[in-house]
Amino acid sequence: xxxxxxxxxxxxxGKSVIRDVxxxxxxxxxxxxxxxxxxxxxxxLRMIAGLETPDAGEIFLGSRCVFSGPQGVSVPPExxxxxxxxxxxxxxxxxxxxxxxxxxxxxxxxxEHLAERVRQALSIVHLxxxxxxxxxxxxxxxxxxxxxxxAVVTEPECILFDEPLSALDAQLRAEMRVELRExxxxxxxxxxxxxxxxxxxxxxxxxxxxxxxxxxxxxxAPEAVYSHPATSFAxxxxxxxxxxxxxxxxxxxxxxxxxxPGARAFTAGVVSSQYLGAGYEVHLLxxxxxxxxxxxxxxxxxxSLTVSVRPEDIITV
Amino acid sequence: MHLDRLxxxxxxxxxxxxxxxxxxxxxxxxxxxxxxxxxxxxxxxxAAVLGAPENLxxxxxxxLLGVLVVLTSTVIAAPLxxxxxxxxMARHRAFDILFLVPFMTPPYIASMGWxxxxxxxxxxxxxVPGLPDGxxxxxxxxxxxxxxxxxxxxxxxxxxxxAMDNIPSSLExxAAVLGAQFPLRCRRVLLPLLAGNYAIGALxxxxxxxxxxGTPYTLGRRIGFDVFTTDIHRYAAVAPISFGxxxxxxxxxxxxxLLLWMVQNAIxxxxxxxxxxxxxxxLTLTPLRGAxxxxxxxxxxxxxxxxxxxxxxxxxxxxxxxxxGYGLAAGNFTLAHYAELFADNENAVSAMANSLFLGxxxxxxxxxxxxxxxxxxxxxxxxxxxLLEAAGLLPEMLPGIVLVIGLMLFWNGxxxxxxxxxxxxxxxVTYTALFLPYTIxxxxxxxxQISGSLxxxxxxxxxxxxxxFRRITFPLLLKGIxxxxxxxxxxxxxxxxxxxxxxxPNTLVVSTYIMREFEQGSVSLGMCMxxxxxxxxxxxxxxxxxxxx
Lengths: 317, 549
What we know:
Strand order of the largest sheet of chain A: 7-8-9-3-10-11
Radius of gyration of chain A: 23 Å
Strand content of chain A: 25-35%
Number of helices of chain B: 25
CATH class of the domain at 335-549 in chain B: Mainly Alpha
CATH superfamily of the largest domain in chain A: P-loop containing nucleotide triphosphate hydrolases
Strand order of the largest sheet of chain B: 1-2
Shape of chain A: globular
Largest sheet of chain B: 2 strands, antiparallel
Structural class of chain A: alpha+beta
Shape of chain B: globular
CATH architecture of the largest domain in chain A: 3-Layer(aba) Sandwich
Distance between the termini of chain A: 33 Å
Helix content of chain B: over 70%
CATH topology of the largest domain in chain A: Rossmann fold
Oligomer: heterodimer
Largest interface: A-B, 28 and 24 residues
Order of helices and strands of chain B: HEEHHHHHHHHHHHHHHHHHHHHHHHH
Strand content of chain B: under 5%
Number of domains of chain A: 2
Number of strands of chain A: 18
């Protein structure tokens, strides 16, 4: 089910939070809305779910219009039939895991084979054993899984994620990235995922939509966003960038400390270096810009290095 | 070593002895008076009192009144709580204060306002001459319930609203996304999560209603609706006086209240879903549009009209009317009653002087005693500390009238040793006992805000214990102490039940002056005093709220 946004805009008390955003999310894709906090990505996701109302524009789920400013259409969230995983999981503390999961089926009156369907949804996330527990008796990762099971039990075509990993600690976050992505693929869902974490976005997505201050900056595959950022904001926000001047930069892994034929060479002073196990991350100062490069050997602060970058690795925005 | 421990514990013992005289012994006196006759245990008089049909009817009345007030205040408060927690009306913070005004208004004054408004040829029939007489409708149990609910609903509103504010919007939104319509979301998500807090609020409203004296005395008596407080007052103050009967009824009342407190405590311990995680609670405010908006604001206006508009209008208008026979008419307004209050009116001036004296004295005593109790509780910890704190806080849980009866009985009994009874001194003692919990609570809350590391830092940098207290602890407590002082002063000035029972003959305070003028003197003079009393103390309360932010 394609999700189509057309000329969506929204302002709160005179402050624009979404500025004329148009975007089509392909059926079956994993699409990430990426940007710093306050860029409007969560608002946009909530608009798709019907939890916020745009000031103008249109939203289509497949061919069905769920919001239209000009035609005065606004379908409430309970009639949109989407899955949603909240940032704080939003599990009801007074219901067991089973009842939390069963809610969507009960609310829509689909109580046939209820227990079986709930068990099935819980088995997808390996939580059948914990069906009788209450949310506060679960770990953060387990709560996350319940939130997912609850969202998919009604078999929606599309599932929306609002920064679902941000409430977890770092190690769990890395595990859940892999797990969530696998589940979405296995169930053949269309997923829209909101995050401010660019590494999360790059690693999980088929497509990334980069937002800044309510505007869509770039909408492309992660590889394309990384190697061909459309705007200087996208270049800054996704990955580390070493700027040569205001329009040209290169990525850390493209720099070499040994001279290569035809490469451009820069002389830079070492500010500090950090050992990462696999190598060193060296922070440099070159012409007033701070650079980061990777190096197999330690570089001492105060030393001077020659950095070589091949012309084809220098990106222009 | 032994001596050291003695000096360490001496303050706690001294305070314990004081609280024994102020709270514990008076309370025991009530129970003893109820079941001891001529030095022997005698249960039959108590049984006779409880078996008397008029007393059984009174107990049924009280419980019925409690239930009806809980229901009515719920009906008033619940929609307001939702509107001011979940819709864009929550942005209007000014209503927080406005809705507290009815709760801050002394109930006997609000009742007087309503009586003046609704009585035969009252202010309502003067405002709208064609209207049929509203008195037969108002001077009923329904009217009593309405007036008491309009006083107490802000309390329930605050509890419900805070509870709703702690429920993240995402819990309702997730239900909506999963296909649940508004009624189902309320039934399955919002209401179950509010149930615990609501039960606590409802129980407290019930206890408050049972303990309330002002409205049943002014309005309830007119319609012949006797409750615990009015009957206890009658037995203790109106001939034929029977302290025994008063004590029996007071014992029953206090037992009911303590039982309800225990239920309340049990609920508090059991419910508490862990709602809030580390992050703050995100609330989405639904914008209200069109008809819903008009309806919502109309409802707010109606509640404010009933809870503030009518009683305040009546009290102020009556204080300004020259001749009550002419009613609300141009040219029939005057400030002369206010002038009369101060000029050649010995009763009014001495009532004000008495109230101010009592307020200042009781507030100061409470500040000293309350702070000392908190410090001693912190020092002693363990069982001694808990007992001390419980004794200090007990008056807050008891209906005021019970403690007043107890103080009457106890201090009457030790008159030969300490001749305070029948002097202004007994009022000072009574007020101090009644209002000590406020200071204890304010100072305790200041104390909990002082982190242990602040005091550790003082010690690391070489401060002696006294120096640390003087330079760190005390200045940080000062805000709480000042708040306790102010609160005690304010409620002392308004207090009605204690002076109407225990004041020496011919000694009036502000509240008893208002009551006397309302019943058999110049109603306008009484209302002038009411305006001054409410105006000053409400202003002080609002200032206090600001100060505590």
